[in-house]
Amino acid sequence: MKSAKVSELKARLSAYLAEVRRGGMVVVLDRNTPIARIVPYEEQVEKFRIEEPGRPKSDLKRVHGVRPRRPVDVVRLLREDRDPR
After folding, report:
1. 5: helix, coil or strand?
2. What secondary structure letter does DSSP report for 12?
3. Which residues contact 4 (CB under 8 A, 6 or more apart)?
């Protein structure tokens, strides 16, 4: 594993990428603090799979919405969640 400061990485990027192509790893440092790691690319198999439905889609007509017991101020809830505290 090699390490390189940002300025050195910018100046010698091709050499560091060649190291990664050979299977190595490069740790990028910003004032001696590790901030990133460059590793070889690995093709990953998608873990996504499609499953057939367990029931017919006509059963969806029987699903009813849920009504809250009291009014909900959605804008207030979003602002509380998004505004910095």
Report:
1. strand
2. T
3. 12, 16, 26, 27, 28, 29
Q: Residue 29 is encoded by which pair of tokens?
A: 């440092």
The secondary element (H helix, E strand) that includes residue 3 is: strand 2-5
Give the Cα separation of 44 and 47 in Å (integer): 9
Sorted by where each starts, the structural domains of the chain and their CATH numbers stand as 2-38 (3.40.1620.10)
> Per-residue pLDDT tens for 56-73?
988 888 888 888 888 889
For 41, the token pair is: 């690319």
DSSP track, 25-61: -EEEEETTEEEEEE---------------SS-GGGGG
Q: What are phi and psi of 28, to 5 degrees?
A: -95, 130
Q: Which strands form 26-30's sheet, in the order they lie side by side? A: 2-5, 26-30, 33-38
**pTM across the whole model:** 0.51
Q: Which two tokens stand for residue 11?
A: 């100046």
